[in-house]
Amino acid sequence: MWKNGALILFGLCFVEAQIHLIDSRCYLAEGGSAENFLASEDAAVGSVLGVLSINGDPKSDISLSLREKDSPVTIASLSKNIILSKPLDKEGLEGPASVYVNVICDRRMSNDPSFLIPVNIRVTDVNDNSPAWVGAPYFVNISEVTIVGTRYS
Q: Taking a C-beta distance cutoff of 8 angstroms, is the pair 94, 87 a contact?
């Protein structure tokens, strides 16, 4: 009976060792293939636009960097934070209207190839541009029974 007990114990230890060898560093936590964030065009330079949901710890077992060197965002050192480094502008006048970068994730203590994780940042608009009326003033007579949504030119 002792032999059987020893065999069962050995089998459990073997299974536990196999589970421990599974390595999920550099994969997105939800199993996706890309990260998407929204950022307001009035976000301050230096603010955090989002936190990457990559498995692994940048302080110990992964390193993160951007493939694009002239990007309006950076990755904060030893973190997963995407930081705004240049102003954004939904109209594209004073900065980019959207940002698309690739994050390079390297597993430390491994010879495995790097993982490339696309990150898309969509810029949301704020009411920061007053309207310009060409040829103003305009005079229009509209009947009070006009259907809502009717266009006039």
A: yes
CB 70 within 8 A of CB 103: no
Distance CA 80, CA 55 (A): 10
| Closest-CA residue to 58 (of 75, 72, 36, 34) | 75
How many other C-beta atoms lie within 10 A of the C-beta of residue 42? 15
Side-chain half-sphere exposure of 96, counting CA atoms within 13 A: 15
Question: How far is it, in rounded angstroms, from Cα 36 to Cα 115?
Answer: 17
Structure tokens that stand for 123 in this block = 């810029």
**pLDDT tens figures, 77-131:** 999 999 999 999 999 889 999 999 999 999 998 898 999 999 999 999 998 878 7
Per-position DSSP letters for 15-29, written without gaps between them = HHHHHHT---TTSBT
Residue with tokens 């705004």: 84
